[in-house]
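User: I'm writing a short report section on ligand binding and want a predicted complex to refer to. Could you take this sequence and flavin mononucleotide and write out the structure as tokens? A short remark afterwards would be nice.
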Amino acid sequence: MSCMSRQKIILGITGGIAAYKTPELIRRLKDRGADVQVVLTRSAREFVTETTLQAVSGLPVRTNLWDKEAEAAMGHIELARWADLVLIAPATAEIMARLASGAAPDLLTTLCLATGAPIAIAPAMNHVMWSNPAVQENRQKLADRGFRILGPADGDQACGESGPGRMLEPDDIVKAVTAPIAVAEVGPAPLAGKNVMITAGPTIEPIDPVRFISNRSSGKMGYALAASARDAGASVILISGPANIPLPDGVDSISVESAREMFAAVHANIDDVDIFVGAAAVGDYHAADVKPEKIKKSHENLSITLVKNPDILSSVARLKDGPFTVGFAAETENLHEHAFGKLENKNLDMIVANLVGKGRGFDKDDNAVEVFWHEGERAFPLMNKKTLAGELVTLIAERYQVSLQTDTKTELPSIAVRD
Ligand SMILES: Cc1cc2nc3c(=O)[nH]c(=O)nc-3n(C[C@H](O)[C@H](O)[C@H](O)COP(=O)(O)O)c2cc1C
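Assistant: Sure. The structure tokens for the complex follow:
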């Protein structure tokens, strides 16, 4: 049985040029065993015909809130209850505005207000429209309310220009909406009985009693991973640097400040850990000489000597009979090359890599990542970090199971534990 059997999807199609890809999207969702009920906006009917969509979906297409015949068969409230998921692809700037404001002038927006099902949208528009502050504000509002925002992708556009605003390809949309269901398919608790340790947040390295060196990590990704690993049945230890977000319920936590404190906390608790996920943004250096008093502004120039911190990830990955080890790489360029380098050099089992800077990655609610392991890789499009965490935990659980059967790691000399 496919992993999407019995899933009931309302596919809302709105008036963007990318609507021409929706027959293909429907076909792929149906290939995965989903029932797809299409709802078209008035503008969408300019781009794709009801006849095509009905033929591909196998169900009469709904277009109008005031269709007496359709309402008599399955009223809009019944339809809203019927759905396991509402997927809007393509999602125009206009539908995002209607959804963000809570307006319900048509069938699709009324369904979105009336449904208890998760709602995912795949925005598609010209890149200038996408970067318009009004659209970005609406995107943020929707993400904050728990809508899953799938994409958009960056690339050539129908208008002849290039930039972020392309609808994700049907395959990527299908992958993004089917992964959480895959968790249910492998059983309610794929990590039951497993001990998972996750590091999260930034570290801070003092310079004097009032100043420190740190980074922009918010801890959101690591905390979301801890919650997802807990939901997957694991006993979770979360070792966190200073993060300004609530700790997830049901996980054991240890708070630390510096990289060396994090290193010590990790190694003091690593013995029975099956899976280690290093999501913290650990400082690479600390000040050689932490001044006992506040440094005065008396010199024109001031140099601070920095000393390398121990590498937590490598030290765990090199432990004899150590855990399955997953690292994170935040890069500003050459993602693929740097991520593969770290996977090999640090002797990791998997690495989750993302581009940061220019508004991406740190301190955002959404993230897009690429995951690499020795035999493969998988890309996850831009989505809410909580959703992404669920998908990453599913993949980590899968790869961990594979690693139990085939140990692909080479043993490297261990790293001395420094204080
Ligand atoms: C040829 C054409 C292409 C369009 N493509 C897009 C698009 O890709 N994205 C978008 O947000 N709006 C696009 N629009 C504008 C929308 O169709 C318009 O805002 C409409 O009101 C959307 O309504 P709906 O969201 O109810 O479908 C396009 C309009 C035309 C005429």
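A remark for your report: The pocket of flavin mononucleotide is lined by residues 14-18, 41, 43-44, 92-95, 124-125, 129 (CB under 6 Å). Confidence is low (pLDDT under 50) at residues 1-5, 179-188.
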